[in-house]
Specification:
The complex is a heterotrimer of chains A (about 260), B (about 280) and C (about 60).
Chain A (H helix, E strand, L loop, with lengths): L13 H4 L1 H21 L4 E12 L2 E8 L5 H28 L2 H33 L7 H21 L4 H28 L16 H46 L1
Antiparallel strand pairs in A: 1-2
Chain B lengths: L1 H28 L3 H8 L13 H19 L1 H20 L8 H31 L2 H7 L4 H31 L13 H23 L4 H29 L1 H33 L2
Helix pairs in contact in B: 1-3, 3-7, 4-5, 4-7, 5-7, 5-8, 5-9, 7-8, 7-10, 8-9, 8-10, 9-10
Chain C lengths: L2 H6 L3 H51 L1
Classes of the chains: A mainly alpha (about 260), B mainly alpha (about 280), C mainly alpha (about 60).
Amino acid sequence: MSDKKLKLPEVGQWPDKLVAPALIAGAVLSTVGFLMAFFYVAPVGGATVNGAELIGDVMVSQKMLLSQKIFYFHMPVAITSFIALGFGCYYAVRFLMTKNQRFDTCSRICLEIALLFVALTMITGEMWTRFEWGVWWSWEPRLTTYLILMLIVIAYFVLRSSVDEPERRGTFAAVVTIIATIDVPICFMITRLIPSSIHPVVLREGGMSPEMGLCVGLCALGMLCVGFVLYRARFNQVRLTQRVEALKETLDDERA
Amino acid sequence: MQRADVGCSDRASSTANETVQWTVSQSEDCLSESEYRAADRGEVRSSLCKAPSTWTQCKTLLGKDLKAEFRTKDMIVSMGIYAFLVIVVFGVALSFARPGSEFLEVSGGLLWALVVFTSLLGLNRSFAKETENGCLEGLLLAPLDRGVIFLAKATANLVFLLVVEVVAVPLYWVFFSSFAAPADTGWLLVVPLLLGSVGIAGIGTMLSTITAATRGKDVMLALLFVPVVFPLLYACVSATTCALVGGDVFADGFATSLALAGGYDVIMILASWVLYDFVVN
Amino acid sequence: MNPILADIYSTILPSAPYIIAAYALLWVALLVYVLVVFRGTKKAEAQLMLLEEAVADRAAKGE
C-alpha cells in the first residue's frame, strides 16, 4: 500500500467521544418515539365497518389497528441492520486491501450487530405477521429477504468458527460479507418483482402521514444511536480481550 | 477395487502435473527462432517470454479438468446416481398425490430441488480433488491470473452439471409424466435450466473454493450456497413453472424471471471473478 | 357500547399481546447483548489485573 501509515480503528479515537451523547440520544429518542407511537400518532385504519362513529372530533369508519404500532420500531430496526451490514462490507473491503486483522475485527463486530438487529426485525415482524395474517410465516418478499440475510449471517459465523488460521479466516469472512451485501438487495428485488401466484404479495401501501414519518424517523435515529453505542461497546471489549491475549503471549515467551 | 482407485487418482494427478508443465512449456513454444537468438545474445528475455493468451490458459485448464473427469468418470457417475435417487425419493413423496394439472405448478420447483441437491454434491467434490493431489499448488505456482483459474473451474463444473442434467431431466419426465402433461411451451424450460446452471456453477465454484479449506466442508458449503443462490433459484423456479404451465401464466412471468436470473448471473459471476483472487491464495 | 364502536375497536384487545411481546422481546434482546458485552469486558479487565499482578511479582522477585 502507500507509504502513509495506515490509520487503524482503535479504542479511544474520536468515535468514542460520541458514545456518551449517542447513548443519551438513543435513550431519549427511542423513548420519545415509543411514546409518540402510542399517544401522538393516530392509529391506522383497517377494514371499513358499516357506519361511522364520532371519536374525539373525527368521524371514524374503519377498524382501528393497534398492531400497526409495531411498525414504528420494526422498520428502524431493519434499517439499522442494513446499515450495520453496509459498514461490515466497508470494513471487509478495507481488510482485503490491507490484510490488517483490525479491519477483520471491525467487520466481524459489524456483522454481529447486523445479526442482532436482523433477529430483532424478525421477532417484531413475526409478531405482526402472526396477528395480521394469522400465520407464523408467509413467503412475502421482505420476510423472505430477511430470512435469507439471517441465514447468510449465521453461515458467516459458522464459517468463521471452522477456519483456524487468522488471515485465511479473515479473507473468507470478508469475501462472504461482500457477497452477502450484493446478494441481499438482489434477493429483495427478485422476490418483489416476480409475484408468487400461491402467496399473493400483501401490499400495505398508501404512504405515511407526516406524523407517522416523523415518528419513524425519530425511532430510526434512536435505533441507529443504540446500534452505534453497542458497536463501540463491543469493539472496546474485543480490543481489550485481544490486548490481554497478546500480553499473555509476550509474558509466556519471556518466561520460556 | 482399492487398487483401481489408487490408479485413477494417480492418473488424475499426472494430468495435473502435465498441465502445469504444459503451461510453462507453451510460453517457450511461442518464441520464434530469431527471438531465441536475441535471447541468447543476452537481451532482456523476460519481455520476449510472452505468456500464452488468457484464452489458451483457460482452455488448457478446462481441458485438464475434463480429461481427468472423463478418465475416472467418478463425479459424473456419482452425480447421476444421486440425481436418480433424488427422483426416487420424490416418487415416494408424491406417491399419495393425485395426478392433475396442479402438479405442473409443483414440478418446476421439484426439478430445481433435484438440480440444487445434485449440484451441491458435485461442487463439494470438485475442489476436494484439487487439494487432494496437490494440483492447486501447481496451479498457483504457474504464472496465471487467478480469474482464469476461476473461469476454467466454473466452466468445468458447468459442463458436469449440464451433462448430468441432460440425463436427469428427461428421466424426471419419464417418471412423472403420468401426473400431468406440460403445456406446449414446456420445452422452453431449457432456457432457465441453462441460466440457472451457469449461476450455480459460477457462485458455487467460488463458495466451494472457500469451503474446501474449512472444517466440515460439506455442511459448510450447503450452509453458504443455499441462501446465496436463493434469488437465482426463485427466479428459475418461476420461469420453469411459467414454461410448464403455459398460457397466461407464461406470458406474465417468463421474460421477467429470465431477465432477473440473467442479471443475477452476471452480477454474481463478476463479483466471484473479482473476489476469487483473494480466496484462492 | 354501541355495535359500530365495538367493531371499530374490535382488533385492539386481541392484538395487544402481540404488540407487548414484540416490544418486550426487542428490548430484552438488546439487553441480553449489552449484558454479554458487559460480562466480557469485566472478564477481560479481571484478567488484565491478574497479569499486572504477575508482572509486579516478577519485578519484585527480580530485584
